[in-house]
Amino acid sequence: MLATIHSAALRGIDAELVHVEVNHGETGPPETVLVGLPDAAVKESRDRVGSALANSGFEKPRTRVTINLAPGHLRKEGPCYDLPIALGLLAATSVLSGERLQDYLIAGELSLSGATRPIRGALAIARLAKKLGKRGLLLPAGSAAEAALVEGLEVHVVESLDQAFRFLAGMIELPPAAPLPVASATSAGMPDFADVKGQAAVRRAIEVAVAGGHNILMIGPPGSGKSMIAKRVPSIMPPPALDEALEILSIQSVANPAGGEAEVQHFGLRPVRCPHHTISDVGLLGGGTIPGPGEVSLAHHGVLFLDELPEFKRSALEVLRQPLEDGRVTISRSAGKITLPCAFMLVSAMNPCPCGYLGDNEHTCRCTPAQIQRYRARVSGPLLDRIDLHVEAPAVSVRDLRSAAPGEPSAAMRARITAARDRQLQRFSSTRVSCNARMTQAQLRRFAVIDREMGDLLERAMTQLSLSARAYDRILKVARTIADLAGAEHIASPHLLEAIQYRSLDRSSVS
């Protein structure tokens, strides 16, 4: 007898339909044959399912059984097919009626006792179920809450094979799963900018960068607070819109090797990724035998913080050029080709020289000009050209450190940034652009207009700093953001001058 269960396979951050076909009663020795391009984890499901059936009070098949995971050209990976295979065996042996099976997408790992375990990519599977017009999903506890965020679906938690059997047989009813709660910056206990003493210029640059989604580089000696400030950037970022939050969660869920909500970041918060400088190109960009997201995609709609920027491998830094420009990355491997979103804000920090004390009044720099040049040359011109704001972070004075007065709190900065972002969302309401940093050329010509006098001023700055055409556009985008923070409809000279001074550490002046 043949039974078919509907499940899913992950491909990038999306899911594709998989038909789990179970044919029982074939002639030949009693064995279970699994086909359909399964990986090692899927092949091992034969042993897990056999023990789970026995320990749940069901009999193992006594004839030859062929299990086909269709389509055959799509590689299947992970233990998520345990539950649909077990239910397929029960349906193929007439223990379970197949009437309700076709209404649901089913996925879940089984323990030897028959209990279910979380899987990854539950949100992607839920989106597929809605696209296919399914009634709902059966998922393990720990995976169902994220899938319940998709409206119009019945998402049921099944804690064991026996419970799934009784639900599909109509013996019991299961309540719908509750969706993940929405977190806030306050509830997440993020570090606050009130702890930062001094560094008014850096705080201002960070506010401009976050307000427009611009990339920023902080240059300063050790102990000047660069890392401390970077860790507080998430506390001033406006919460993501619902579609952005779902994209963020989709990537986190797919990238989580063990599945489960405990490993997924708080829903409703923008992600922050802080990879170590020893990270590989694949770890940063994404890839693997079966292509998956890297740090740039895990930082989608959030922040990618690279501390000690020149210490990263040159090859790893250079792979950032295309993602910074396009907001997406395409990964090609023998197992397939996928395109992943990676519209992140780059926050980076570096010392001015190898010893870190160039220009510091309290310490003597021990580096030679050649050493300084080699150190700064580790960050290539094309990459630096894609960083909108370059700001110096000088050493903090003892007077500022002794001051008992707290700095401006994150809440006040976030309010101004949110107001500026709202202006941008209204400006780009008819497009998918969400911030000034992502403006197209047509939008730049329309919304970042400057008069002849400001044009002459920008031309002189371009000549003196030897800036590229890309830098010209980025200066205008930053000026548009500064005008938004000021509540101005048009760019004025002070906005343009401030934007220009954030390019003062460009390649011509730091090399």
TrEMBL record:
<dbReference type="Pfam" id="PF01078">
    <property type="entry name" value="Mg_chelatase"/>
</dbReference>
<feature type="domain" description="Magnesium chelatase ChlI-like catalytic">
    <location>
        <begin position="192"/>
        <end position="399"/>
    </location>
</feature>
<dbReference type="InterPro" id="IPR045006">
    <property type="entry name" value="CHLI-like"/>
</dbReference>
<dbReference type="Pfam" id="PF13335">
    <property type="entry name" value="Mg_chelatase_C"/>
</dbReference>
<dbReference type="InterPro" id="IPR004482">
    <property type="entry name" value="Mg_chelat-rel"/>
</dbReference>
<dbReference type="InterPro" id="IPR025158">
    <property type="entry name" value="Mg_chelat-rel_C"/>
</dbReference>
<dbReference type="InterPro" id="IPR027417">
    <property type="entry name" value="P-loop_NTPase"/>
</dbReference>
<dbReference type="InterPro" id="IPR014721">
    <property type="entry name" value="Ribsml_uS5_D2-typ_fold_subgr"/>
</dbReference>
<protein>
    <submittedName>
        <fullName>YifB family Mg chelatase-like AAA ATPase</fullName>
    </submittedName>
</protein>
<dbReference type="InterPro" id="IPR020568">
    <property type="entry name" value="Ribosomal_Su5_D2-typ_SF"/>
</dbReference>
<dbReference type="Pfam" id="PF13541">
    <property type="entry name" value="ChlI"/>
</dbReference>
<dbReference type="InterPro" id="IPR000523">
    <property type="entry name" value="Mg_chelatse_chII-like_cat_dom"/>
</dbReference>
<feature type="domain" description="Mg chelatase-related protein C-terminal">
    <location>
        <begin position="407"/>
        <end position="503"/>
    </location>
</feature>
